[in-house]
Each structure stands twice: as C-alpha cells, then as structure tokens.
Structure prediction request, 222 residues.
Amino acid sequence: MIIAHNKIELALHELRSGAGTPLLLLHGLGERTPTSSPEVAEVWPGPVFGLDFTGHGASTLPVGGGYTAEILLADADAALHELGTATVVGRGVGAYIALLLAGARADRVHGTVLTDGPGLSGGPSVPVSQPVFSLQPVGSTPDPYALVELGRDLRPPDYATTFARLAVEGSPLEAPITVAARFRPAWIAAVADEFGVEQAANIAEGLARYSPDRTDSVFEQS
Prediction:
C-alpha cells in the first residue's frame, strides 16, 4: 500500500496477513523491505509489514537530499498511524528510528527490538565540521544523498537515552526496548545500560517478549 506523507509517497508492504498486533520492520541504510516475510518474522503470530523509508525501495525519491533521522522518524510515524499499533523491529539505521519511535509513541508501540545492520553507527556523537558536497542524481533508489547524509547523521548518546527513557516512562510494558545488536556504537551502548531496556541474543528471543498474548492485555488495561 502507498501512504501519502506530505509530498512523499511511502511504500508500506504487507508481507503476511493475519489478525492481532502487527509487526513493523524498519530496514537498514540503503536497503529496502524484502519481498517476502524474512525468517525472523516467522516467530510472529500476527500480520507483518515492512516500510520503505524515503529515498529507499518503492518510496519517493526526493530531489536534493536533506535526510535526517527525524525525517525517517516521521516516515515510521506515518506507517504506525496507518497500522494503529505495532511491535517494531529495527535493523541498522532502522534500529535508531525504532528507538525514536518507541519514545515518541510509547502508547502505541508494543515493544521494540534493535538489531545490527547498515547505518547502525551513524556519524559522530558530537558536532563536527562537515564538508559540503553535491551528488549526481541516479534516478533510482537507494538515493546516494540518503547513504551519505544518514551515514554521518549525529547520534549523541544522551539524545538516544532521552527517547529510551520516554519509552520506559510512557509504555505500560516493564521493558519496552530490547537490544539484540552485537555491534554497540556509543548511542546503543548507552541505551542498553538504561533502566527498562533488556538485551537478547537474537531478534527471535527479543520478539518472544512482545508476543501479543503477553502484551496486548497490558495495553488494553493501560
């Protein structure tokens, strides 16, 4: 399905139909939603969706760049609005966006699993001087501007932990965030140390904590 987000058309793919809380997959930098449900989604009993971020996959390719994590957060928020509620798995840059979404929409995100993938580290954790650049348009996704700009996007640990705390404070779940990433850049290491954040050996283990039969009743009572 196509979601209108301002002047951007976002592709939200239904990978598997079903009843219950949807699972929303957020891909890594330069990637796109897979054409079929990945193996990890087989442990999820409900429907499975995947979002193509702006400049990726079948979503709109804008002109001139201007990508930030907050732009992708708005993409994910538009998908969440379409689904109503969701459990979120973020891979790479998608993990960072999943964290921001968990904090911004704590009452509608039924658990978040963060895992390894392209764009997980992002750029520096403090402001630095960055060169100005111009790229030739390629006319297809992934947008090279997205690869460059999101690959050097600032990831301050204190900014990331602010969203982790918002998720913990606003969610009825005791531990609304699970870190399943083995690679730990500064921002995700800081998040992993926060109260209310758990760790898992893999995505399947993390998702087991957020299965609908364990979380839906908690949200219904909140």
In short: The longest helix spans residues 69-83. The mean pLDDT is 89. The helical segments are 69-83, 93-104, 144-151, 157-170, 186-192, 203-208, 212-221. The two ends are 31 Å apart (CA to CA).
